[in-house]
């Protein structure tokens, strides 16, 4: 903090406001406020890219077992949901910092085109869920659950 003639209290307050905004933006980026369960959800990171005649969605889920992941198509959305449990090694541990997200997660990706629902494939390797959605012309039908290989 500056003192004397160079000190500008308004500039100091603006700096504090910017730091607070950054703090809230980073915290809110890890949770999905639109999820039906509210603040208890976190949103995993993902990449979406087009390759040849299909769309690929890769969702980062370290520390999650394949059996804890629900992958499905709902109309034009790919929905990935599940739970990541916090691992505690010993009773009575006291954490000094917890930065990773735990609990229920949900990620919804709007698909830019219709996909061949009968040919959707999902794999889970090294904490990354990879969903390949072949392109197709036609209409979508009801919800479809996708199994993970």
Characterize the structure shown.
With 149 residues, the protein is of the alpha+beta class. It is 14% helix and 34% strand. It has a single domain (31-146), classed as Immunoglobulin-like (Sandwich). The protein has one helix spanning 9-29, and strands spanning 46-51, 54-60, 69-74, 77-84, 103-110, 121-125, 128-134, 144-146. A 4-stranded antiparallel sheet has the order 1-2-7-6, with no helix packed on it. A hairpin with a 2-residue loop joins strand 6 (121-125) and strand 7 (128-134). Residues 32-37 have low confidence and may be disordered.
Q: Which SSEs are present, and which pair or pack?
A:
Elements: H1 9-29, E1 46-51, E2 54-60, E3 69-74, E4 77-84, E5 103-110, E6 121-125, E7 128-134, E8 144-146
Antiparallel strand pairs: 1-2, 2-7, 3-4, 3-8, 4-5, 6-7
């Amino acid at each position: 903090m500056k003192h004397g003639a160079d000190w500008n209290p308004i500039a100091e307050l603006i700096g504090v406001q910017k730091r607070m905004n950054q703090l809230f933006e980073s915290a809110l980026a890890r949770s999905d406020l639109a999820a039906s369960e509210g603040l208890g959800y976190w949103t995993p990171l993902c990449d979406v890219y087009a390759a040849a005649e299909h769309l690929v969605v890769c969702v980062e889920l370290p520390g999650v077992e394949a059996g804890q992941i629900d992958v499905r198509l709902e109309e034009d959305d790919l929905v990935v949901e599940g739970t990541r449990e916090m691992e505690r090694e010993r009773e009575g541990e006291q954490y000094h910092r917890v930065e990773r997200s735990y609990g229920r997660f949900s990620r919804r990706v709007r698909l830019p085109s219709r996909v061949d629902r009968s040919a959707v494939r999902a794999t889970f390797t090294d904490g990354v869920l990879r969903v390949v959605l072949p392109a197709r012309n036609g209409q979508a039908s009801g919800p479809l659950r996708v199994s993970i290989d």
